[in-house]
Amino acid sequence: MTWKLPCLTALLLILLCPPPATAADIVFYDVDFNGVFVPPKGKAPGLVKASIHIGQDSQLIRIIDLAAPAARFSEFSGDGDIRREGSRVIWEIPSTGGSLSYQVSVDQRKGEAFDARLTRHWAILRLGDLFPPARVIAEETARSRSALLLQGPPGWSFETPYGPAAEGVDFANPARRFDRPTGWMTAGKLGIRRDVIADRQVSVAAPVGQSVRRLDILSFMHWTLPDLVAVFPQMPERILVVSAEDDMWRGGLSGPSSLYLHADRPLVSENATSTLLHELVHIAAASAARGADDWIVEGLAEYYSLEVLRRTGGISAQRYARAFRQLKRWVKKDNGQLQSPSHGASTARAVLLFRDIQRELDAADAGSLDTIAAEMLDAGSLTSEQLQSALRDALGKPSARLERALRSAVESTP
């Protein structure tokens, strides 16, 4: 039989790229992530004894390749073949499963302070500091069923984006074939306040004695989160806020379904923006942030930290206008331009642009930036091209404000 070239090419594509697995094809293996916190004692630094256990009846998952630099991750042992290659550790898993154990040095500096800390009485860190990113070789139809168990000294609690983990907690992200724990966590003798706000389970957790105003944070979220969720319905169903003051970085940082906020950060700053609202927008936009234009991500977060406060009556129209005048002076003083990564005057320039875009939409009776932002998140793309496309659809023509700003950014690039 003689094959024509197009037919042969199509057959090869079918053989090399089988169709996606259906729900009926999926098979599961179990992954247990465990961590035992050992606080510092005397001159001995604190550490976490971590382990990953794989349960499988056949060889569904074969290799886990961890990003584990030796300065933080050490003492690897377990079943199967384990080897270090530079900053990575490769674990070849036995066909019937097995365990990998290692030690983690927790303390990690951000400037003069810490953004990961283990003291004698408490800890704040990202779960990814314990269970780092991994490349996995597994069967195409294999998916993990993951659970997390954290332990430590008597009386310690462990709060994670998945809930309390001292007795173990299951978690699942359908978008991941190998689901590892991510997001911020805190441990130790904790004070925790919980509530349901805008149909989201919200927890505010901090070590006792750290001057964290947990109820203030919950009250602020009762006031603002419903309006933020109305703009960003992608906000996850669980949100954890962790906080502390001693030696910790004096800012805010978001993570999957969670954020860290220093105890001294005001809920509303003197410039009328809110670090807490800013980081909550990052949580909502997390799924679209990879590969995004950073000026869009940061600009939207700061714009809505102002806009939600205005809408909810947290700041007056006069103070809102004053905040934008301050941003305009900042941009002029430091020559802020749309760029990635974005910070300072560059983010201020993006905030001014989003206000101008809203004015352009209003003038054309073409809807709201809220709709544009939600559509971009649904599409999983926060890029200049996606913003141009969304505005063209809304306005029926290119956005004059956006095109002018993008040309200015190109012209100012060295």
Number of helices: 10
- Overall average pLDDT: 92
Strands of the widest sheet, in order across it, are: 4-7-2-1-12-15
Strand portion: 25-35%
Gyration radius over CA:
24 Å
Major sheet summary line: 6 strands, mixed
Provide an overview of this structure.
With 414 residues, this protein is of the alpha+beta class. Helices cover 33% and strands 30% of the residues. It has helices at 5-16, 214-231, 275-284, 286-289, 294-311, 317-334, 345-363, 369-379, 384-395, 400-412, and strands at residues 27-38, 47-55, 61-67, 73-78, 81-85, 88-92, 97-104, 108-110, 113-118, 122-126, 134-138, 142-151, 157-160, 163-164, 169-171, 184-188, 190-197, 200-207, 238-242, 252-255, 258-261. A six-stranded mixed sheet has the order 4-7-2-1-12-15, with no helix packed on it. Strands 8-9-10-16-13-14 form a six-stranded antiparallel sheet, with no helix packed on it. A five-stranded mixed sheet has the order 17-18-19-21-20, covered by helices on one side. Helix 7 runs antiparallel to helix 10.
Descriptive key words:
six-stranded mixed sheet; 414 residues; globular; alpha+beta; 33% helix
